[in-house]
Design goal:
Blueprint (H helix, E strand, L loop, with lengths): L5 H4 L22 H11 L4 E2 L2 H6 L14 E3 L4 H13 L4 E4 L16 E4 L6 E5 L4 E4 L5 H7 L5 E2 L10 H6 L7 H4 L2 H4 E7 L5 E3 L16 H5 L8 E8 L1 E2 L3 E9 L2 H13 L6 E5 L1 H11 L7 E9 L1 H17 L6 E3 L2 H12 L1 H6 L8 E7 L4 H15 L2 E8 L4 E8 L3
Parallel strand pairs: 2-4, 3-4
Antiparallel strand pairs: 1-2, 5-6, 6-10, 7-11, 8-9, 8-10, 12-14, 12-15, 13-14, 16-18, 17-18
């Protein structure tokens, strides 16, 4: 999403002394002088106006059409980002921050052209503080590359939206994922951010070099920028909370005769206070798609994917109580995935659900949206929407993931031809 001057959002600021009055200034646009200025900062090898490159940066994984920028730049440090942003500010050009292009909402589309800042070359893990359970990374560092770096430290970063997304991009979109029920979303795991504002100024949301977990002093700017989706500034560093790797992990699959039974079971597991790591509902349409796409052999029925983390003793207790709840809701016996390979295959199938569902209707486009409801309303909204899909003859599916303080239901559908 493009980053614009705050004057457009707050017209009253135009009357403040020292601010530019955009109505009195001629409309600026991309020209040779601007291109030369960008090149002087980033280097000639780090800018491109190639049509192929522009198209690559004008679309993500969503159904939205390509809206390419006018030019792409690859800054290599925060100072370059600051100077490039100042040039765009002076010339009234939109800025579009670009990470790994794995989003599903069209956030990288340059609706009004402008300058795309591809941050892939800023890929340093700046500082790891294992004793303090935190790490600071640049925007080119992805979720998987960070966890590979952390191997051997006993730590990991659990927020897992499925795609190997940029961590700063995940902060910008307030990403969550399958582990959110236990470890929280990005909002709970971002401690500080270095941000370049629209005019090129550099700021820190919790103060320079600060890694403390207390946020009661001063404004909570960190949570303001988490989820801002590139509209308030360009995130050039983020400090993240790390977690200890559990002693044991085990995954399981359980099927149910109805959607209502599966969702009721999910709500009851949370109400009992079971510290489950992941609990994901897939309806019959989604299970059929996953079986075909990921070459699985699960029952085509309303299904829960679960994962438990902890010590061997705590796992046994969690599994026992969860099993009692499953049986009370007419759930099947567990199908276990205990070793690393089996668990990875199970959750990779879940992460590939978007592509699996699209494969149900080749040539059609899929539309994705999220619905957030109170936990008590989760059974009602899923059952009602499932009925609506059947009546409207749309190919659609649910991928709800239950978060700590509520419930987010990720809803996808594929229109008919």
């Amino acid at each position: 999403m493009a980053l614009h001057s705050p004057l457009r959002a707050f017209p009253a600021l135009k009357r403040v002394a020292g601010w530019r009055n955009h109505r009195l200034q001629p409309k600026r646009c991309m020209n040779r002088d601007v291109t030369d200025a960008l090149s002087a900062v980033a280097g000639a090898d780090n800018i491109s106006t190639s049509s192929a490159v522009l198209e690559q940066h004008g679309k993500d994984e969503s159904y939205h059409g390509c809206k390419p920028p006018d030019i792409v730049v690859w800054p290599q440090n925060v100072e370059q980002v600051s100077r490039l942003a100042a040039i765009c500010w002076a010339n009234d050009l939109p800025i579009i921050p670009f990470g790994t292009s794995t989003g599903l909402e069209g956030g990288v589309a340059a609706l009004k052209g402008g300058v795309c800042f591809d941050l892939a070359k800023m890929d340093k893990i700046v500082q790891l503080n294992a004793v303090d359970f935190d790490v600071t990374v640049e925007p080119g560092v992805t979720r998987k590359s960070l966890n590979n770096y952390l191997r051997g430290s006993g730590l990991w970063f659990p927020v897992d939206p499925g795609a190997d997304a940029s961590l700063c991009g995940m902060a910008a979109t307030s990403a969550s994922g399958t582990n959110a029920v236990r470890y929280g979303t990005m909002r709970e795991n971002v401690m500080n951010m270095e941000v370049v504002l629209a005019d090129g100024r550099i700021m820190y949301t919790a103060g320079a070099q600060r890694r403390t977990r207390k946020t009661s002093a001063g404004y909570n700017l960190t949570n303001l920028f988490v989820g801002s989706e590139g509209t308030l500034g360009i995130i050039t560093k983020t400090t993240l909370r790390l977690h200890g790797i559990p002693e044991s992990m085990v995954s399981a699959v359980c099927t149910f005769p109805t959607v209502q039974a599966a969702v009721d079971c999910t709500v009851q597991v949370l109400q009992y206070g079971i510290p489950i790591a992941r609990i994901e509902f897939l309806d019959d349409v989604m299970m059929d798609a996953c079986n075909k796409f990921s070459k699985l052999n699960y029952a085509v029925s309303s299904t829960l994917f679960l994962e438990f983390h902890g010590t061997e003793k705590s796992l046994a207790e969690q599994i026992q109580v969860t099993d009692e709840i499953m049986k009370a809701n007419r759930g099947s016996d567990y199908i276990w995935a205990k070793d690393q390979e089996a668990r990875d295959k199970l959750w990779q199938a879940r992460h590939n659900a978007w592509y699996a569902a699209r494969a149900l209707r080749p040539g059609c486009k899929a539309y994705s949206t999220d619905v957030c409801v109170p936990l008590s309303k989760l059974p009602e909204i899923i059952v009602a929407t499932k009925d609506d899909l059947i009546q409207s003859k749309l190919t659609g599916w649910w991928l709800p993931n239950t978060c700590t303080l509520g419930s987010t239901a990720n809803f996808r559908f594929i229109p008919w031809d």
